[in-house]
Amino acid sequence: MRRISFTVNGAAREVDVEPRELLVYVLRERLGLTGTNVGCDTSSCGSCTVLVSGESVKSCTMLGVQADGLDVTTIEGLATGGALHPVQQAFHEHHGLQCGFCTPGMVLASVSLLAETPSPSEAEIREALEGNLCRCTGYHNIVRAVQAAASA
Question: Would you give the DSSP letter of residue 63?
Answer without folding.
Answer: B
